[in-house]
UniProtKB/TrEMBL annotation:
Residues 6-150 form the NADPH-dependent FMN reductase-like domain. Gene3D superfamilies: 3.40.50.360. This is FMN-dependent NADPH-azoreductase. The keyword Iron does not apply. GO terms for molecular function: oxidoreductase activity. It comes from Staphylococcus shinii. Keywords: Flavoprotein, FMN. Homotetramer. InterPro entries: Flavoprotein-like_sf, FMN_Rdtase-like_dom, ISF_SsuE-like.
């Protein structure tokens, strides 16, 4: 069965404007394509996502169409730039909306996010990548996603103003290795869940 991956790009940039986060995400997607995994990037800033803790906040809210894609995916990657050492506001908003959707159940009575795997991609000009990844990966785990090992691919530049990820022509061996770890470990675990989903004993939300 062919796997599906959804990547939420939490960049504050819109449309086709260059995104360092998307540049790093695209390296993950190159591996996904090689391994026959469907992958789609959704730039969150291009959607009208309402504030709130629910799966649908009503008129004008475009989160439900994003959620439908996540529900039909095997892998979810959240990508974010760093601002003042934190993940972006829109990445936070997406995580809040995911939390508000976690009471939806699958046909086994589990959270709809069971048997899906998660990861994080982070870019920035200063420190904060591990902090942002920690927040993202914990949040995903808390609502039902499974986090494989080494799925925090990141790049940060030196302190202060300086080159961004696209400016260095993507030449960083540490980052490239972690892109590889993220891609293959999410694929491996997603394939396992396709064959052997988590049993529903002890984890049905309504029992």
């Amino acid at each position: 069965m062919k796997l599906n991956a959804i990547i939420l790009n939490g960049s504050l940039k819109h449309g086709d404007e260059g995104s360092n986060t998307e540049a790093l995400v695209n390296e993950v997607i190159e591996i996904y394509k090689k391994e026959n995994v469907n992958a789609e990037i959704l730039r969150l800033s291009d959607y009208n996502i309402s504030y709130g803790i629910a799966d649908d906040m009503g008129k004008g809210d475009e989160w439900p169409q994003i959620l439908d894609k996540i529900i039909n995916a095997d892998i979810l990657i959240i990508g974010t730039p760093l601002w003042l050492g934190e993940k972006s506001s829109i990445a936070t908003l997406a995580i809040e909306r995911l939390y508000g959707s976690s009471s939806i159940t699958n046909d086994q009575g589990q959270s709809i996010f069971y048997n899906k795997v998660g990861g994080a991609v982070v870019t920035g000009n200063e420190d904060g990548a591990k902090h942002a990844a920690t927040s993202i990966l914990y949040s995903l785990s808390h609502i039902g996603f499974t986090i494989p090992p080494n799925v925090d691919a990141y790049w940060v530049g030196e302190a202060g103003p300086g080159p961004s990820y696209m400016d260095i022509n993507y030449e960083n061996e540490f980052t490239k290795k972690h892109v590889e770890l993220l891609a293959y470990n999410t694929i491996h675990l997603a394939r396992m869940f396709n064959k052997n989903p988590i049993p529903n004993e002890g984890n049905q939300l309504n029992n």
